[in-house]
């Protein structure tokens, strides 16, 4: 079975940003995505209360060019104003043509 190396972009953000992030990622070239509700602790600690809402994790498998565009957009638009984390990993996928 032949695989292709692509990029998995993972974004963790406040749930109120979900629709905006999905729209942006698609506009920047992603063909699909997965969103899950997540919780955890980071440099800012654990969220203080339920009323603050949950976090979401958005994942998308994309080409290296799309991954770069997404990270640049996040850095310019979201990082200065919101609690957003993003990272990119190499992934080996079957049927790579579905993603690019």
UniProtKB/TrEMBL annotation:
Organism in which the protein naturally occurs: Deinococcus yavapaiensis KR-236
Lineage, broadest ranks: Bacteria, Thermotogati, Deinococcota, Deinococci, Deinococcales
Residue ranges the record marks as coiled coil: none
InterPro entries (alphabetical): N-reg_PII, N-reg_PII-like_a/b, N-reg_PII/ATP_PRibTrfase_C
GO biological process: regulation of nitrogen utilization
Gene3D superfamilies (UniProt xref): 3.30.70.120
Protein name as it appears in the record: Nitrogen regulatory protein P-II family
Gene Ontology MF annotations: enzyme regulator activity
């Amino acid at each position: 079975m032949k695989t292709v190396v692509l990029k998995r972009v993972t974004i963790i953000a406040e749930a109120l940003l979900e629709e905006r992030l999905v729209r942006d990622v698609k506009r920047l070239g992603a063909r699909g995505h997965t969103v899950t509700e997540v919780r955890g602790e980071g440099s800012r600690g654990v969220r203080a209360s339920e009323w603050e809402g949950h976090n979401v994790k958005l994942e998308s498998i994309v080409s290296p060019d799309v991954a770069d565009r997404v990270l640049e957009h996040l850095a310019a638009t979201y990082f200065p104003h919101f609690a957003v984390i993003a990272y990119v990993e190499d992934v080996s996928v079957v049927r790579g043509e579905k993603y690019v």
